[in-house]
Design brief:
Elements lengths: L16 E5 L3 E5 L9 E2 L5 E2 L39 H16 L4 H15 L30 H4 L2 H13 L9 H9 L11 H11 L35 E2 L14 E4 L5 E3 L4 E8 L22 E6 L5 E7 L10 E2 L4 E4 L10 E7 L9 E2 L1 H7 L9
């Protein structure tokens, strides 16, 4: 691929003129090599998308619309598989999902519960392990009879132990807006409170496999109402669009092979929000050839760098980067932030010729260009609605 492109060389926005319908027509600068545009409204709707694209995540991928709650909310049929998990583990996961759906817990709760059970028991219905056991913990969630969770016999019943978990989760105020690890910890009170986060991607895959893609559904919806998330909504997998914006210049296009993200064009001051829960790991004004205050001014095609930018590290060592912010991000390094948390506003600092958010996704904790993937495909796979004009 050639030499690595540092942040100060990213995000050049070539001039053109497009219109964004947000109550009034606003003239914005656009990028050459444009893939297409998604017309977003202030209320989160989309115009210019035909019926075939209303799911917003690609043909043939559901959001739980066809999921049928198992009778009585108990152990349901295992119709899917996930690499690395056996049939007994998938059957236990199916029981958790069935109970959650019967209790009207939104699918975000199913992901939280399965990630928790992955950490506590690897989705294995453990009995008392004697000296190897953590105190007297039993079952999928390693709940303790001595702490009032139930009798040993009850805690070996996957449906019972799932109900106890969901009862506690529903009692946690604001759990749906918390990061997965925070919500799980409020229920479990584990000695390792940060351990749950690493299981979120696998838990998402399990829910999708067993419940017709329900982890791509809007996270606030309950069983019987499952549908794909709209723009601005957080999906059950915990992801959302970082801004309401038009998709401009795409990822590594023929015209711009060194463009390692996507340009999301929006008016100056549009909120920029975290695409998922995580920890802020980097904040910088990367224009080192000018005084640091230069990032607080509009950039230009001749100005180097991302300007003001911020990075957030998520579960599974995924990093998201947000460039060309109007001013220093409002978050701080080391801060744990939930999905949808405002970290800044759209600007045009750095190498930019008009207000937009340059957004990148990096895998394996690799901050360099070699770790990037197409953000559009990445978000769509997690149920985030991204539309393009045909």
């Amino acid at each position: 691929m050639g030499a690595e492109v540092s942040p100060r060389r990213r995000g050049r926005l070539h001039p053109g003129v497009i219109a964004l319908a947000v109550g009034a027509v606003i003239t914005l600068l656009c990028c050459a090599g444009m893939l297409g545009a998604a017309f977003l409204t202030d209320v989160g709707g989309i115009s210019g998308a035909g019926p075939a694209s209303q799911s917003g995540i690609g043909g043939g991928i559901g959001c739980g619309e066809r999921f049928v709650v198992p009778a009585g909310g108990g152990r349901g049929p295992v119709r899917g598989s996930v690499r690395g998990l056996g049939q007994a583990q998938m059957a236990n996961a199916s029981a958790i999902i069935g109970v959650g759906a019967a209790m009207k817990v939104p699918p975000r709760g199913w992901v939280v519960a399965i990630a928790t059970a992955m950490q506590e028991s690897r989705l294995t219905n453990l009995g008392h392990l004697g000296r190897r056991n953590d105190h007297d913990s039993i079952g999928l969630f390693q709940q303790r009879p001595s702490m009032g969770w139930g009798s040993p016999a009850q805690l070996r019943d996957p449906a019972y132990t799932a109900r106890k978990f969901f009862d506690k989760l529903k009692a946690v105020e604001g759990w749906q807006s918390m990061s997965l690890t925070d919500a799980a910890q409020r229920v479990q009170r584990s000695a390792y409170p940060d351990a749950y986060a690493k299981h979120e991607p696998l838990a998402t895959d399990v829910v999708n496999a067993l419940a017709d893609g329900a982890a791509r559904a809007a996270g606030q919806l309950v069983s019987g109402e499952l549908r794909c998330a709209e723009v601005g909504q957080i999906t059950a997998s915990g992801w959302a669009s970082p801004a309401k914006a038009l998709m401009g210049s795409g990822y590594r296009t023929a015209q711009r092979p060194g463009h390692h993200g996507v340009d999301m064009i929006a008016r100056r001051g549009t909120p920029v929000r975290t695409a998922a829960g995580g920890v802020v790991t980097h904040i910088e004004c990367d224009n080192q050839s000018r005084p640091s205050y230069w990032c607080d001014r509009d950039g230009s095609p001749q100005t180097p760098g991302c300007g003001w930018y911020i990075e957030v590290t998520h579960a599974d060592n995924v990093i998201t980067r947000y460039c060309h912010l109007l001013r220093r991000p409002t978050a701080r390094e080391g801060q744990r932030v939930p999905a949808g948390y405002q970290i800044g506003v759209v600007g045009t600092s750095g190498n930019s010729s008009g207000p937009h958010l340059h957004f990148e996704v990096h895998l394996r904790g690799d901050r360099g260009s070699g770790g990037t993937v197409d953000p559009v495909g990445f978000l769509r796979a997690r149920g985030v609605r991204v539309e393009f004009l045909r």
